[in-house]
Amino acid sequence: MLYALIPLEVILILYALGRSGLTLILGVSFTLVVLYLWSSRHRFGDGLMPLERREFPWLYDGIAKLAERAGIGMPKVYLLDDYIPNAYSFGNTIVLSLGLFEVLDRDEILAVAAHELGHIKNGDTILFPLITYGRYLFAVTTLTLLLLGSNIVKFLALLLYIGYEVERSSFMKGREFKADETALRLLRVPLSLRKALEELKYYEDLRETVKVSGVPSIEPSIERERKFTFIPETHPTYEERIWRITYEMNQLANRNLQ
To answer: What is the pLDDT of residue 223?
Structure first.
């Protein structure tokens, strides 16, 4: 459903604006591609240090083994010089902040890395930015149609935008669960992923300030009471993920006993 909404939006704006609509779509798309290429080279490179095996042999070898189990090549791994425990991935790269080493043990850090490996294996590091930039395209075209379109076009444009936001939220939540499920199958100690999330929960306020938009990351959605918002959450909560992890662990244990 998510993938069908953008073509429908394009058809609507071509119907409403003709050649002007086509020019708008091409112009916005080109701008977003340029911004994505620039941000992928600059935004993610500040303060990152390549992981050296001689400094952290247990971490380097551990990630290499996880990648081998996942059937993918060894990713690039960087350490972020930041005291806030955080992790995210983009392209074929995993970033782990030094703050993780202060609050998690080795198995839990590898569990965090396994979650990010799950995103890479499942193609989320490509899908997430595309979906995020698709949202920007929707915002520009919807605003244009609300200003220039007929009443029926305005109604359809708003309906498509709301549909995209709802489907985007559902899709990205599902990908987070899938990354957790992938990680559980890669880890020598599956319980370590649940323990890592239970520990990281105490640092959620700090991580709110270091989120990188449009890339997969370890943090679930903040659980505290929020102000009302029309924008659906794209991350499941801690409790949702911990419950799903517990369920998946029980399923794995039952299969192993059979």
So the answer is: 42
Considering only CA atoms, which of 49, 43, 181 is closest in space to residue 121? Answer: 181
Classify strands 76-80 and 93-97 as parallel, antiparallel or unpaired. Answer: parallel
Length of the chain in residues, anyone? 258
pLDDT in tens, 79-91: 998 888 889 998 8
Please tell me the distance from the alpha carbon of residue 80 to that of residue 98, in angstroms, as a whole number. 6
Locate tokens 């080279």: which residue?
41
Rounded Cα distance, 161 and 149, in Å: 15
User: 219 pLDDT band (50/70/90 cuts)?
Assistant: low
Dihedral of alpha carbons 101, 239, 207, 52, sign:
positive
CA distance 16 to 10: 10
DSSP class of 202:
G
Q: What is the pTM of this model?
A: 0.84
- In order, the DSSP letters of 75-97 are PEEEEE--SS--EEEETTEEEEE
Nearest to 117 by CA among 95, 135, 84: 95
Give 221's pLDDT tier (boundaries 50, 70, 90). Answer: very low
Q: Which helix (H) or strand (E) holds 50?
A: strand 48-50
Question: Residue type for 164, please?
Answer: Y
Where is 49: in which H helix or E strand?
A: strand 48-50
pLDDT at site 254: 72
Residue type present at position 82? D
Residue 38 has pLDDT above 80, yes or no: no
Q: Please report the sign of the dihedral spanned by the C-alpha atoms of residue 128, residue 198, residue 185, residue 111.
A: positive
Q: How many CB atoms lie within 10 A of CB 76?
A: 15
Is the Cβ–Cβ distance between 59 and 45 less than 8 Å?
Answer: no
Q: Are 158 and 142 in contact (CB under 8 A)?
A: yes
